[in-house]
Design goal:
Low-confidence stretches: 7-22
Oligomer: single chain
Strand content: 15-25%
Structural class: alpha+beta
CATH superfamily of the largest domain: FAS1 domain
CATH architecture of the largest domain: Roll
CATH class of the largest domain: Mainly Beta
């Protein structure tokens, strides 16, 4: 007599009655299947029912009840408690990929970005797919607002934030000490997300003798903050995205160049030695050298102001006032944050005052002329 597991029976039921289920959304389909009771309970506890039953097309990698039963005893009960709602949401959204992704499409890629922000690794072997190590039990279960792929294990995202991930790696002690001395630990431990180009201890050791000790002194905090901000990008940028973009704006408001050479992928002159290390609030790429921000001298500032006026004027004349103001402000802030000692305090004060006055001009709809006037004054002050 042929015997079928409960999972197989539930999957067969879904496939046999697929036509009648096509009008059902993801949640309704999971409820009718009968073997996603734990998943449905978790979705309700996390407050995600409306999201998964909405109009947006989604792909759900759905763990069965048997998959949840594999977790350590008491895990599910703990996650369902109201005080653990944030952690539960993080886990569940790690099983959701925006858009309708069929199994045949998954064969073409090596990863998939989730609603959690982290990525799922997709591996192929002997004509079969695994998702973050989980085997696919059934695929392409069509729903009105997406598709379900059934998996045999619950996938757990990285729960540690950037500082904890770096600490656990045990090769970023100098970086962590610098972050603490600069007062940036709470920033990198916040929600973010952030992308960090992280120099190893060996990378810091390549700096001239005494450099690190000097930077860690309280009187050099501003310089240390500037260097560390030059290693951080707002947002979660994976290595393939960074290479495609070829550059990235850092928290210092200065860009780093990203390229692929015969020696490998590079950020400025630093080599990427490891990439896409996930954290709950971002991603870490390991580099073999410390990135030092280029000096923004008087000559650099002059060229930057000229370029800013040129590009801003074209955009303004095309009728895009808000974009012109954004370009002006971005350049002015970058100069204020990055100018070296060759740029006088009076020049920087002109820029600061103009930015402040432009915020008042927003009420009248056109701050561009205030910003442009400040840029002109700052430009001519460079000759004094």
């Amino acid at each position: 007599m042929l015997r079928c597991s409960k999972v197989a029976i539930a999957v067969c039921t879904l496939l046999m009655f697929g036509n009648s289920l096509k009008a059902d959304n993801l949640v309704e389909t999971a409820v009718k299947a009968g073997n996603f009771k734990t998943l449905v309970a978790a979705v309700k506890a996390a407050g995600l029912v409306d999201t998964l039953a909405g109009d947006s097309q989604l792909t759900v990698f759905a763990p069965t009840d048997e998959a949840f039963a594999k977790l350590p005893k008491g895990t599910v009960e703990t996650l369902l408690k109201p005080e653990n709602k944030g952690q539960l949401i993080s886990i569940l959204t790690f099983h959701v990929v925006p858009g309708r992704v069929m199994a045949k499409d998954a064969f073409k890629v090596n990863f998939a970005g989730t609603a959690n922000g982290q990525r799922l690794d997709i591996a192929k072997k002997d004509g079969k797919l695994t998702i973050n190590g989980s085997a696919l039990v059934a695929t392409d279960i069509q729903c009105d607002n997406g598709v379900i792929h059934v998996i045999d294990s619950v996938m757990l995202p990285e729960s540690d934030r950037i500082p904890a991930v770096a600490t656990n790696a045990k090769s970023f002690n100098t970086l962590l000490a610098a972050v603490k001395a600069a007062g940036l630990a709470s920033v990198l431990d916040s929600d973010g997300p952030f992308t960090v180009f992280a120099p190893t201890d060996a990378a810091f050791a390549k700096l001239p003798k005494g450099t690190v000790q000097t930077l860690l002194k309280p009187e050099n905090k501003d310089q240390l903050v500037a260097i560390l901000k030059y290693h951080v990008i707002a947002g979660r940028v994976f290595s393939d995205q960074a290479v495609e973009a070829q550059s990235a704006a850092t928290l210092l408001k200065r860009k780093v160049a990203i390229s692929v050479t015969a020696d490998g992928a590079m950020v400025n002159d630093a080599k990427l030695v490891a990439t896409d290390i996930e954290a709950a609030n971002g991603v870490i790429h390991v580099i073999d050298s410390v990135l030092l921000p280029p000096a923004m001298t008087k000559a650099t500032v002059r060229k930057m102001l000229e370029s800013t006026v040129s590009s801003g004027s074209r955009i303004y004349n095309a009728g895009n006032v808000s974009q012109c103001a954004k370009i002006y402000r971005s350049a002015m802030n970058e100069i204020i944050d990055g100018a070296d000692a060759s740029v006088s305090k009076s020049t920087l004060d002109i820029l600061r005052l103009s930015l402040e006055r432009s915020r008042m001009a927003e009420n009248h709809g056109d701050p561009c002329w205030v910003l442009r006037h400040g840029i002109d004054l700052a430009y001519f002050s460079l000759d004094k």
